[in-house]
Amino acid sequence: MQDCVSSNKIKENKYKILRMSLILGSDENREETINNFEEAAREIDAMNDEIYLKDLEDKFYDTLKLEEEEKKLAILVDYIGGRVEQRISLLSDFANITGYDLSNLPPIKYYDKLDDYKERLKYIREYLKNTEQIKILNQEIEESEKKLKEAYLKKATSEECNTRNEEILLNKFTHMIKDTASLKDITEENIDTKLTEISILVKESKKSLDIFTKSFTTLSGSGISYEEEQEYRSYVDNAKEIYYSNKEQEYLLKIYKYLLSKETEYSPILEKREMINDLLYERLTLRKKLNIEEIDFLEPLYELLERQYNDIQIQKDNIENIEILSESISNKKEKLTELEQDNQKVEILSLLREFCMIDTYSEVEMSTSNTTSVIEQTNDLEEPIETNEEEKKPEKEKEASQKEPEIIQKTDPISSQETAGMQENIPKDNQVVSIDNANNIDLDLIHSKANKVMKRVGEMLGIKTEETKIVSVSNPIPVEEKVVPKKEPQPEKEIKHNPLPLENPLFNNNLSSNNLSEEPEDSFWFPSDTPDALNELPDLAVSNNTFFANNNIPDLNFPDLKLDFGNGDLEETK
Question: How far apart are CA 112 and CA 238, in angstroms?
Fold first, then answer.
């Protein structure tokens, strides 16, 4: 260990002294010094590469969690990136000192995978960050929804209180105006008509009051007697009383109309109370202007309205809180949706599937009804057996052998797209689907069709098949069957396939005629007369799945790191 450290120190010192020699030395031995400096630079790079490779393999290990993978990749990217920066620094320093490029250095191991590691690390960090934010947002949404629920409960309580206040206020006002003769017969149906009539009287009485007031002002300045002035003043006062009486009825009718429309929610009831307050304020202003000195019988109503108005205003904070919470929850849910969509990227889903965090594979099962329809379709496609027309059989057999692959492809249950919509009809394991009477089964027809299909498959694979015999369920005693003579298929229409060796017991249907324990005469895998058959085997494709599949680390070869610093090659200069 000490010798290695000393050797590395010597290489570093050698590089430094040659570097300084090129900076300060003469031009006489410059070419030789450059050659020595190049050799020292290559030794430094080899030393750095040895140190780099010493700890590199230990940084590749299997991980079970994305957090562990993120930590591993972060260290690995920094380690490989540090080695690349070290190489670039050496190349740059050599070019600056000598004016030449230091070429043909060995490639840095896993340098060509660095971008892939960075991209993988980026998606892992994106997923982990999104997941953490999703967790925080879900907690915040849960807390906000809890507060919103409490705010709505408080709102419901306030609305119940508003309903009671409306009833109290209406009863109070009705009791106060019960002695007013002009308002005794007022109902919700006729209040608009009465309000229109009283408004006309208010305008007429106001016009009369203005005339009397203007005339009295003119007469009082013309030198009339005291008695005449008092008489004209009484006219004015009478007009004033009539106008105020009409206006008072108009105020009371308007207030009554507002009180008849009961409100419970915050905004409508607040708007209604503010309009009532405006009417009362206008009425007090008119009384002051007309010098009405009689006691105001609505004074108890003022106190009740003010107390209830304060209670309604307190609800404002809760209503605003509901609006703020609702908007906040909506914004957070939108952000949550965006994060969840980001986590649905193909690269992220691939990582999640790799670490068994999701399972995107669904097992396709077949329903009984779909299987039955496929079997029926297969039976319909096969031509019927004709025993009386022997001359037509070879032609039909040739047509069937040509159409057989299409039948198999069309009736493949696994590739059927209809199975996806039949999942609810899938029978459970060991469940009896249907039971038919065995006496109604046409065994002869099944026997003939089975032999014909087996014969076709044998012709395609180059295997001779024997006809099977089916014993009737109802009759255990074997019955002689009529053997239908069959003609061999035409030789010119044979399907060109490499026939399987009939002597191989693994591919022979009749196991009883072969003894598996006997040693074959020729080699099982290759014939004895073709020893070079191994050379004809295709090369196996090498998998590119290395680091991303969480497997063992391959031994990769990387291209040379070529950097252009603006000068030609040293050898070309020489």
Answer: 108
- List phi, psi (to 5°) of 270: -65, -45
Residue indicated by tokens 């409960």: 153
Q: Residue 291: which residues within 8 A CB-CB, separation 6 or more?
A: none
Q: Quick check: 415 and 352 in contact, CB under 8 A?
A: no
Q: What is residue 101's three-state secondary structure?
A: strand
pLDDT of residue 228: 85
Cα 221 to Cα 215: distance, rounded to the nearest angstrom: 10
Is the Cβ–Cβ distance between 102 and 42 less than 8 Å?
yes
Contacts for 290 with CB less than 8 Å, ≥ 6 apart: 240, 243, 244
Q: Where are the beta strands (DSSP E) in 32-138?
A: none
For 453, the token pair is: 């299909």
**Averaged pLDDT of the chain:** 74
Is the pLDDT at 285 greater than 90, yes or no?
A: yes
The H helix count followed by the E strand count for the chain is: 13, 0
Query: Taken in order 514, 515, 521, 525, is the CA torsion positive or negative?
Result: positive
Per-residue CA distances from 509 to 37, 135, 463 (Å): 77, 62, 9
Query: CA distances (Å), 228 to each of 208, 210, 212, in order?
Result: 19, 19, 14
CA dihedral 126, 131, 136, 138 (to 10 degrees): 130
Q: Give this prediction's pTM.
A: 0.52
Nearest to 395 by CA among 407, 383, 406: 383
Token readout for 374 is 């496929």
Q: Which residues contact 468 (CB under 8 A, 6 or more apart)?
A: 447, 450, 451, 454
Q: Where are the alpha helices (DSSP H) in 355-433?
A: 368-381, 393-410
What average pLDDT does range 281-301 have in this prediction?
91
pLDDT digits (tens, 9 = 90+) for 363-399: 333 333 443 443 344 344 344 444 444 444 445 444 4
Q: Cα separations (Å) of 391 from 1, 33, 388, 396, 448?
A: 93, 98, 9, 10, 18
Structure token pair of residue 82: 């540090």
